[in-house]
Amino acid sequence: MSELRSVLDALAGADLHELADGEVLERVALLVAVGNRVAAELTRTVRHADVRQAAEHDGLTSMRSWLIGHARLAPADASRVVRSGRALEHFPALAAGFAEGAVTAAQFDVVAGAVGERERAQAAEQGVELAPFDEAWTAVAVESPHSTLITAVQAFEAALDPDGVEPDPTEGRRLSIARHADGSVTGRFDLDAVGGEKVQAAIESIVQASRPKGDERTRGQQNADALVQLCDNQLAAGTLPTLRTVKPHVVLGVDLDDVVDPATGPGAAQTGFGAQISAARARWLACDASISRIVMGPDGVPLELGRDHRVVTPGLRKAVVRRDRACVFAGCDAPHWWCDVHHLVHWLHGGETSLGNSGLLCERHHTKVHHGFRIERDPGGRWRTWRPDGTEVLLGPAP
């Protein structure tokens, strides 16, 4: 083990700037193979510890719990290592490729996760030998993309039970949403193949339709923005079922003093689901919203409730859409049905709710404008965009 640490120390001490591009790529390929071999040895060792119940030495009942508690592995990663260890003896060819560094831990787990004890017993009952599949899967893992191995293993699963009952796709669907202290949300979903295809198709349509010039978002950010846009479109359509006697929409509660004050005002506004957001964020949403005035008494009891007032009337929006047609931020052409009507001079600061004081902005660029960017329409009717430092965002090559 000391020799292994010495080798790793030597690798970490190498000056990568001295390597040519080809040498860097060779190093990457070698490290991937070495990482595979280390992962294989970890899997083999964990399996040995699992059989010996070595975790009892530290007062724990399983190697999974030991890996989570002592090695600080994520629960899913700990389960994967233990599951793969229990499959090593059943797939010797794949295990050999894993030990040689040609098969990755993820590839081995594709087989270990899909062909477990129940599937192996089912194969034995039907007289199906695993050895030919083991050899074939090893060849696929070494020579083909990761997705190809998944397809090959799925074909084996289907062959074991070709006449089985088609499962209800809704049984395995899950969606969990967790809200954090700062109001942000983390979610996880599990979908069947068809359900996942529907979600991917909807999100991909928005991603591909919103690719403005100079877009530096990661693919993950693009997907997240598309999901929000998808919900925004549906909320704006007004066709969703009613929620607590009203059509579902984003609800904000904020004091008038915080709205008028130009300061950021962190935590000044509260959403309908209880998240705290800043007054600046509330002012951004108030550009194109319905406003209700509620007069509160000193004991927190509402004294007077005003009628809803739509800041941007349907007629004004039609006129703005007719003129602008799409997001007016430089380099963006997001369609008008994705856009809010932005007040160039906010109505809170005396700006008129008029055609001349309005412009279409998609969510991303509406946020930019409320964080230092600026748009204006010149006398010739051309929209121009300015950065927070005062320089103009120009399209095409620099003069």
UniProtKB/TrEMBL annotation:
Transmembrane segments: none annotated. InterPro entries: DUF222, HNH_nuc. Keywords: Endonuclease, Hydrolase, Nuclease. Residues 315-367 form the HNH nuclease domain. GO terms for molecular function: endonuclease activity. It comes from the Bacteria. This is Endonuclease. It comes from Modestobacter versicolor. The lineage of its organism: Bacteria, Bacillati, Actinomycetota, Actinomycetes, Geodermatophilales.
